[in-house]
Design goal:
Elements (H helix, E strand, L loop, with lengths): L4 E6 L1 H10 L5 H11 L6 E6 L2 H7 L5 H12 L4 E6 L12 H13 L4 E4 L10 H9 L3 E7 L14 H6 L12 H14 L3 E5 L7 H14 L4 E4 L7 H10 L4 E4 L13 H11 L2 E3 L2 H17 L23 H15 L3 H15 L6 H6 L3 H13 L6 H14 L9 H18 L9 H8 L11 H8 L19 E2 L5 E2 L4 H9 L1 H19 L2 H14 L7 E3 L4 E6 L6 E2 L4 E7 L2 E6 L4 E6 L6 E2 L4 E5 L1
Parallel strand pairs: 1-2, 1-8, 1-9, 2-3, 3-4, 4-5, 5-6, 6-7, 7-8
Antiparallel strand pairs: 10-11, 12-19, 13-15, 13-18, 14-17, 15-16, 17-19
Helix pairs in contact: 2-4, 2-12, 5-6, 5-21, 8-9, 9-10, 10-11, 10-13, 13-14, 16-18, 17-18, 19-20, 21-22
Length: 622
């Protein structure tokens, strides 16, 4: 019997650094790592999408396209390169029309992208179907990601008297929506539309090991394409759930390399390698090459210290090919596998936590685990309440999440819906504190969600609630035809060039106009400076420095506001008393300003057609 191979999607250069270090890994650090990746043998490397296009422009002053090209050039097809896309929202924050989607996908594939992982925060198939179709048409591999989420906890039953408890009925449990069949049916729909990979995407790390086993085994039976499992270790399920997924036949597992693994990121590949060795499963990666990456990755992590919440308690160094485990720790791996095969979830988690504790990975986040909300959602709620001086309402706000979520159509808790629901739960808690009715205060995003602009919610929203929030009971989807393409202005100050000078830059401007505007303007400024003669640049710099020097001599100021029509003198010119200096238009009349005394012009502060205000400086004399 042929040995089974588990393929790996390495997340280190995208999701790993985004989850742990705020997406601040620079191109210089990536360039040191890339040659080491060439022989790593990963089936897929996730290197783009998600927060990368925004963050590399906003914080690193780097081009997202250059990043993709640089990775593609070095890897040269040895691993498929992948990106994460929010379907209709792409890598941005609003629904984009098809021409923007197609433009991005076309340029990305042309620059070396192989796999586009496509998900929607609402699991609304209508929001991903065009992306799946386009990626296929353009020669890429569409990866249909189903977002994992859980049903809200049932509200607590009111206290009842003795006879009511004895003879009365228990309150009915709300019907479960996010069943295994829900996720399987979404996967089937994506496969029918042309998805070539199906991912169970557990962005909050909320899928526990038994649930991972159940869903993965059903996905394997339901679809013919490879099944991928993506999770995080935040609440402590990640490693145990990954083991369960492997045992239940998952084809591809998402991992990070040691220094970028664990905590709020995906499991470390080194631990997965040990489990696979003991299970008799081949791992689709060259662990010697991974070891070389791991050495350099430690230096990369040190360069990110200011963004590293665990910089003072990093995991202990470990090479699974060279370092011998203590007998007790080694037995934990065997015991974890035994517990997994027996379906003993509690024991499996205990052994996995003991393994992670030995190596020094962060402890499970119990609050996230118990509240069943993503860590980022919780952090945003804490920050929102702190800014409102209402931190004491955190517990109340957390308790309101199930109510708000049910009212809004039981949306999955994934960006951006998790933040929208969390912020609205805070608003309701504040309403109650003030004695106002619930939903007296609603964010624009919550109104848009209830209106239908983000897509179809898993459960239909009560028309009466929609009318209360939006003013109309009718669902109104976002009209992409109303999308206005950002302007691409001509920059006269940089020689009359366009802000975005090619298709790639026009796409950045369309996707993230506020960030791209500053980024592209800086590029044009650099190009303009480089294209000009050195003498001209020097003269301009001297003139600028002179213009900014303190005023020490007599001055001529505008007696009233107006527009400069003509300037009759130049710096260095001697002028007689009464000589015409400036003609300017004010109150629909042209006025001449004459020299009040003889002197030598030192500086002129205005230009023809410039509008000036009363008492603005016009001329300084020696």
């Amino acid at each position: 019997m042929e040995k089974r191979t588990l393929q790996i999607r390495d997340l280190t250069l995208r999701d790993g650094q985004q989850s742990l270090f705020a997406t601040r890994l620079s191109q210089a650090e990536i360039d040191k790592l890339l040659p080491l990746y060439v022989n790593a043998g990963f089936e897929i490397m996730e290197v783009w999408g998600g927060a990368v296009p925004d963050s590399v422009m906003r914080y690193l002053d780097e081009s997202p396209w250059d990043r993709l090209r640089s990775v593609s050039k070095v890897i040269d097809g040895r691993s498929k390169l992948s990106a994460l896309s929010r379907g209709r929202n792409l890598f941005g924050y609003v629904p984009y029309p098809d021409n923007v989607l197609r433009g991005f996908y076309k340029e990305a594939i042309k620059n070396g992208l192989g796999v586009m992982r496509i998900f929607d925060a609402l699991n609304d198939i209508d929001n991903v179907k065009e992306s799946i179709k386009m990626i296929n048409e353009l020669g890429g591999i569409p990866d249909g990601a189903v977002c994992y989420t859980v049903d809200p906890k049932a509200p607590e039953a009111p206290k009842q008297g003795f006879f009511a408890r004895l003879f009365g009925k228990k309150p009915a449990e709300p019907e479960k929506v996010f069943t295994d069949e829900y996720f399987v049916e979404k996967a089937r729909e994506m496969e029918r539309l042309g998805a070539k990979i199906i991912t169970l995407k557990d962005m909050a790390g909320l899928v526990n090991p038994l649930r991972a086993a159940s869903i993965i085994s059903k996905l394997k039976a339901a679809v013919k394409v490879p099944v991928d499992f993506h999770t995080h270790c935040t609440p402590g399920y990640g490693l145990g759930s990954a083991v369960m997924a492997i045992i239940n036949g998952v084809d591809i597992l998402d991992t990070n390399i040691w220094w970028f693994g664990g905590g709020s990121a995906a499991p470390a590949i080194e631990l997965i390698y040990i489990f696979c060795q003991k299970l008799g499963i081949e791992l689709g990666a060259n662990m010697e090459a991974v070891g070389k990456i791991r050495v350099q990755l430690l230096e990369a992590r040190k360069s990110l210290a200011q963004f590293d919440l665990n910089k003072d308690k990093m995991p202990r160094d470990f090479d699974p090919l060279k370092d011998k485990l203590p007998a007790e720790i080694d037995s934990y791996f065997d015991d974890a596998i035994k517990a997994a095969k027996e379906g003993n979830e509690a024991a499996l988690l205990d052994y996995c936590h003991a393994i992670e504790q030995y190596f020094g990975f962060p402890k499970p986040n119990e609050l996230v685990k118990n509240a069943e909300v993503p860590g980022g959602m919780y952090s945003n709620m804490v920050a929102q309440l702190k800014s409102l001086n209402a931190s004491e309402l955190l517990e109340d706000s957390m308790a309101l999440i199930p109510m708000v979520r049910r009212a809004a159509g039981l949306v999955p808790l994934v960006t951006p819906t998790s933040q929208i629901v969390g912020a609205q739960a805070v608003n309701v808690a504040l309403d109650r504190k003030k004695g106002n009715p619930d939903y007296s205060s609603c964010s624009n995003q919550f109104i848009s969600l209830v209106k239908g602009e983000y897509g179809h919610t898993p459960v239909a929203i009560d028309p009466a609630f929609r009318e209360k929030i939006t003013g109309s009971p009718i669902e109104k989807p976002y009209d992409v035809s109303s999308y206005k393409e950002p302007a691409n202005p001509t920059l006269d100050e940089f020689g009359g060039c366009k802000l975005a000078k090619n298709t790639e830059e026009e796409l950045l401007l369309a996707l993230l106009p506020a960030v791209a505007n500053g980024f592209l303007k800086k590029r044009r400024q650099e190009e303009y400076a480089a294209s000009r003669p050195a003498e001209e640049v020097k003269a301009e710099a001297e003139a600028k420095a002179e213009a900014e020097a303190p005023v020490t001599g007599p001055t001529l100021k505008a007696p009233m506001g107006g527009r400069v029509v003509e300037i009759h003198v130049k710096p260095g010119q001697e002028v007689a008393k009464g000589a015409a200096l400036i003609t300017y238009e004010a109150m629909k009349m042209e006025n001449e300003l004459d020299a009040e005394r003889a002197g030598k012009v030192k500086r002129i502060f205005v230009k023809v057609d410039q509008v000036v205000g009363t008492n603005d400086l016009l001329i300084e004399f020696e």
